[in-house]
Amino acid sequence: MQTKLTINGVAATHEVSPATLLVELLRDGLSLTGTHIGCDTSQCGACNVLIDGVAVKSCTVLAATLDGAKVTTIEGLAKGDELHPMQAAFKENHGLQCGFCTPGMVMAGLEIVRRHGPNVSAETIAHDLEGNLCRCTGYQNIIAAIGAGAKAMGGKSNA
Amino acid sequence: MREFALERPATLAAATVAFNAGGEAALLAGGHTLLPAMKSRLRMPDTLVDLSQVAGLTGITKEGDLLWIGAMTRHAAVATDATALPALAQLASGIGDPQVRNRGTLGGSVANNDPAADYPAAVLALDGIVETTAGSTKADDFFQGMFATALADGEIITRIGFRIPEKAAYAKFRHPASRYAVVGVFVAKFADGVRVAVTGAGPGVFRWEAAEAALNGTFSVAAVKGLVLDADDLNSDIHASADYRASLAGVMLGRAVAAAV
């Protein structure tokens, strides 16, 4: 089937099978391998992307059901060499160790800013990261990074 | 996932036609239960009928003492927009995680009737009406045990009406990984009586008559102090024994009443 998507600002028609998950189209079809598959059971959040500005788990969405949607992946955040403020905050606060969960954490961070604004508390961030698993950090620096990223974004929308 | 045909009808009539076109069909709402079940091959439909293009299945409207919510309304929207029923909004805000709530739907959850899902407790305690392509069913007749409902094959939930109570609250003990209810208790006080629904504890959502009787006497935490469920009919699994669930139901009941008072 065909599905028209605007992915990171690029509009195109993609040929997919009905069973193609969004994450499979991104990674296997378009080589956008920044979106990771951690669990494939909608628990870990490593595959989070934005669909029309809202964070979802791309391992649990069929690409063919998204016709007309705007998708933003981790690759779509930076402007050239300039990191998105949320990415810069992860770098500045060392909000990662191995980095596997990081793309999903950054997208979850953008979702937190969308829902709670620039002055979100550490407690709210911790609670709203319940759909993202990190097996390295213990989350402290991720929470700090999202708090700093939220402030740096200053209430601006995601991407 | 095994391959299947995908239909994306724009109307309920077309969805029904697509469902009945032959082979095993399944209705796709938010997909956050169905797609994982298809990945693990618990479900292997030949045809998936995506309801996301059908107009008129989302939104929240108040009509008299009923709050109607469209079947395709996502959990996140119920959490923020069901302001006329704060206990329901609070329940919705505790389903899964933020990303799951951005996709999962009320109708999908109710049609699936997972014995540990949150919404069935609200529909039952709030004396709900499940409106479908075939008519309307009261919640008391709709839920029929583990993953079983009054829905016929291919019958599509269009919206659900919740009676707005005087007071209500939901308390659940969440499984720390899945966020499903190990036990969840929804308490609703109406002018004509109290309704208490329990999810997670047994093979399907059910009303707790002893708790209702106690609260019809006095709607207070003291009235239900020490009340526990009979463990005989409850689930025992790796998460909790039946005895533990029986005790937990009493604790959740007390918390729900305390929050509602």
From TrEMBL, chain A:
InterPro entries with a match to the protein in the record: 2Fe-2S-bd, 2Fe-2S-bd_dom_sf, 2Fe-2S_ferredoxin-like_sf, 2Fe-2S_ferredoxin-type, Beta-grasp_dom_sf, Diverse_Oxidoreductases
Gene3D superfamilies xrefs: 3.10.20.30, [2Fe-2S]-binding domain
PROSITE patterns: 2FE2S_FER_2 (PS51085)
Gene Ontology MF annotations: 2 iron, 2 sulfur cluster binding; metal ion binding; oxidoreductase activity
All residue ranges annotated as the 2Fe-2S ferredoxin-type domain in the record: 1-77
Sorted UniProt keywords: 2Fe-2S, Iron, Iron-sulfur, Metal-binding, Oxidoreductase
Domain of life, per lineage: Bacteria
PANTHER family with a match to the protein in the record: OXIDOREDUCTASE WITH IRON-SULFUR SUBUNIT
Name used for this protein in its record: (2Fe-2S)-binding protein
Automatic annotation (TrEMBL), chain B:
Pfam families reported in the protein's UniProt record: CO_deh_flav_C, FAD_binding_5
GO molecular function: FAD binding; oxidoreductase activity
SUPFAM superfamilies named in the record: CO dehydrogenase flavoprotein C-terminal domain-like, FAD-binding/transporter-associated domain-like
Alphabetical keyword list: FAD, Flavoprotein, Oxidoreductase
InterPro entries per the UniProt record, alphabetical: CO_DH_flav_C, CO_DH_flav_C_dom_sf, Diverse_Substr_Oxidored, FAD-bd_PCMH, FAD-bd_PCMH-like_sf, FAD-bd_PCMH_sub1, FAD-bd_PCMH_sub2, Mopterin_DH_FAD-bd
Residue ranges annotated for the FAD-binding PCMH-type domain, each copy included: 1-167
Name of the protein described by the UniProt record: Xanthine dehydrogenase family protein subunit M
Gene source species: Glacieibacterium arshaanense
